Amino acid sequence: MRRAFAPLLFLFLGVAACLRASQEEVTYDAVAEVRLSRTFSSGEYTIDLLYGHLAFGPAYFCAASHGAPTECESAIAEIRSGSRIDLLGAPRQPLGVVRGFTGPVKSVSYDLGIDWFDTQTSATARPEAPDGHSLVVRGTARRPGAEIPFVVTLDVAPQYQGQRAISTAPAIADVKGPGARLVVRFDAQVWLEALDFARIEASPDRPYVVAPGKDGHDAILVSLKNLRPPEFHWETTQ
Amino acid sequence: MLRLLSCRTGYSLVAFVAFVAFVAPATPARADDVTPPVARSHVDAQYPASALADRKHAQVVVLVTIDATGHVAQVSIAESGGKALDEAAMAAMRQWTFEPARRNGRPVAARIKVPFHFAPPSQAPDIVPHHEAAVAGGVAAPRPPPPSADRYEDVHVEGAAHPPSRGASDVRIEGPILRAAPHASSSDLLATAPGVYVSHPEGESVAQRVYLRGFDADHGQDVEFRVSGIPMNQGSHIHGQGYADLNLVMPEVVRSLRVIEGVYDPRQGDFAVAGTAEMDLGVEQRGFMLKYGRGSFGTDRVAAVLAPRGLSEETFAGAAFKSTDGFGPGVRGATSGSALAQYRLATGATSSLLLHVGGYGSRSAVAGVVRRDDIDAGRIGFHDAYPDPAARSQSAATSRAQIGLTFEKRGDEGARATAGIWLATSGYRSALDFTGYTQRSRVEPSWVGRGDLVEQTNEDLTLGGGAAYRSAKVDPLDFVSAQLEVGTELKTSIIAQTQSLLRAPQNEIWDQRVRAKIRATDIGFFADGLVAGAKYVKLRAGARADALFFEANDELGNFTPSFSHKTHLPGFRRTAGGLVWGPRATLEGEPLPWLRANVSYGEGFRSPQARQLEDGEQAPFAKVRSHELGLTARLPRELGSASVIAYQTNLSYDLAFDAKEGRLERIGPTTRRGFVGYLVGRPRPWLHAALSATFVDATLDEPPTPTPSNPSPAYREGQSLPYVPPVVVRQDVSATGELFTLLGKAVTGTVGYGSTFLSERPLPYGQRSPVVFIVDGRVAARRGVFEISLDVLNLFDRRYADTEYAFVSNWNTRQAPSFLPARHVSAGAPRTLLLSGTLYL
Prior knowledge:
Largest sheet of chain A: 8 strands, mixed
Number of domains of chain A: 1
Radius of gyration of chain B: 29 Å
Shape of chain B: globular
CATH architecture of the largest domain in chain B: Beta Barrel
Distance between the termini of chain B: 54 Å
Shape of chain A: globular
Number of strands of chain B: 45
CATH superfamily of the largest domain in chain B: TonB-dependent receptor, beta-barrel domain
Helix content of chain A: 10-25%
Structural class of chain A: alpha+beta
Helix content of chain B: under 10%
Oligomer: heterodimer
Number of domains of chain B: 3
Structural class of chain B: mainly beta
Strand order of the largest sheet of chain A: 13-8-4-5-7-1-14-16
Distance between the termini of chain A: 51 Å
Number of helices of chain B: 7
Largest interface: A-B, 57 and 61 residues
């Protein structure tokens, strides 16, 4: 009898190990891909950039097509760290680690260096935010006979407490398991091309600071948030 | 599997092998075998001198109660022969001693009739030598009947007889196994049943959480609980459907525990989905007991039980008071008190009344849960609570009072009639925060981040009762006997409940989620028949039907948030009703003298939470279908019994814990398949042991439909059900014997332990909770009226999660919160000692 029970117990334990889980945990890297030349043309102007930094994160991915926290209470994946991306640096830069579960992803909500979480009384810049802003670009616009130094400082802040700066954006994938990589593409050149350098040149301010209420600010904001927002792609690494 | 076996199961295997080494027990627990008392010594009655003048012949029938020790406890006259003769008969009767009556081999109190025939001395009086002087004058002394049980009339074993077994999964656990290991509360006694795991994730003032054979019964949604026949489950409770707080009962007065795993008895009512657990209350050791214990974490416990000698075991009065600081950093302190009293009053030779009164109150601080990742990162200790005000303001308070009156009358050939009525009132209030800071006010949606301290209140007043009649056995054929029982049960409840969000520490209300009044009525009817062919085959079959009616006044229904244009006032009153019925049957056979086999089928139900019903909706009962195949073998040399059971249960819709709301939510239909091995017995006269191993494969048949707010539900088709341990192994062993003699009196020692092994438990979102193996032990020594004992819970001081969850939380312990479902732990207690001294008078 004793001999009969020991194998039985092993059988119990063995079958218990065969739990069928709904989703598997998965972890993979995220990288930023930036399209921005140090020198490019915009109309009759040649733009020379000296400095360009963008803050990104955290980002929360959702299995629903609307990823706002009020609509999507559980994320399926997230990048909880923040990153500062050197827009003039390497073509691919690390954006941190994506942690989450296997399964479909349909949307994302994220911050650009300025958070307003449930427990914060006001929007607050993260340490990664360059000079406390979401985006800072310094450069010079040139045309024959004119040289216009400019600085772009852009704040993309959440509108309400508990919201993300970008409350929802499409991000389509079906993550099957490890071996994935998230690539976030930032077309920063398009954002800067939205600036009307002729109007900037007309201003006496030097350097011209593109800030809230100033010419060009809303154009860059709309370009970054709506016209050419960051794009989220998943690629396989195996 | 290797991971499981290599690192987690060592203790369990050792314990298992230790048990198998001395394998098994003596008394099969299910056969309700009653033997009457047998006289050990008797004293003849004296014909009273005062009656000599009349020289009358008379018969006096004495009704005598014999306690479990064989002593005459109570004597009364059932049939009078005149005052003098009555007194003579009673005086003699008080001097008799007996071998006590036995039920299933265990001594029990019994009441019998003994006839005395008095005849005057016609010639030389028949003098009884040792009373000669007292009856000087030559007094006739009629002889009572010889001291044989054959002459007793109407042997009546005190108390309600155990109901008939419904198969191998109908388990009765008696005192030696119930008390082998220490149990912090009466609900922990449930752990001695096969496949049961009991936890207390929300502290001492919230009802136990029970897992049974693949069911996460939470606080009672899937297990019907009864105490002395009174249903304990509370329908439509705000904290969980079927909420049943067993803390009313002090462990000292639980005489036995019957657990039916499955739904095979037509008497099983609402919430008998995984099964039914019934506590049979009684005190075997008569007299007065006073116990004081002091232990770890500033725990003090006082218990007193008065069980007057000579009265039924079911007659007692007890009370217990406890205060503790609890483990961890001062966040589990609790104070509680309970009182329970019963009186069984014989109203005739074959009838009796049982009065039951009980009350309980408790208030405790609650530590809540902590995230695994915070523990792993060293941000918080395993047994700690978050230092946040919302976490430190968690608490629970509860109270309950109940009274019941049951009348029972027995007839010939097993006939029986019972009728009872009971009234219970309870209050519940908890403030629990599982998720930290994730909630947004629905009243004022701009309010956010004020803490998810969910306050729930529930007031309940329930009146219930029932009646049943069982016919005498009839023999339509020589080899066939039959019996029928019909009965009805009803209860009606008035419930008031609220759910709000509080902002700690002032407990300002910053959102209201529920404010409702509910009236619920359940009218049940059952019929149960027995057809027995010779002694080899028995078919017990019947059915139960219940009609339930609900009226819900949802005062916050049709609520309009502050930013919306108001077109109406809040409120949504609705009514609903429904009928549910199901057959239940057990076919039992004895192919061999030592082997009993059964096949059983039954359908049970769980009533819905009234607030979730629509107006006019046919109440959508959760329907369960149970199937079972069982074998029970009587082990040789009366060592005990061994059972093997294969089972399957299908549930039409299941519920699972939702941390955000702090309550149960629907997840879909589920299936459980598994098998159970159960050994119980008495391998040596001084040794009692029980071992059970339960395996279950519990899966979700259909996942919940994704919704815009929950597009990625935690559940997938075919996945293992969360929280449910697929393997549960339980062992209880106790040994008692005389150790030595001290100052002329024997010192008796008792040592016992209980161990629980849980395999890895699946959690939502693909998470798993690790293996749990816990051993509780007890040693005691008694000399005369004094006993000293040491109870040790979690003997090896294992760090384990009493309950583990997976959900989204934000405890503000990092700059950017995580919105991924994460593992959360409600810590099990570390090693806990309680040193007690007990005085028996």
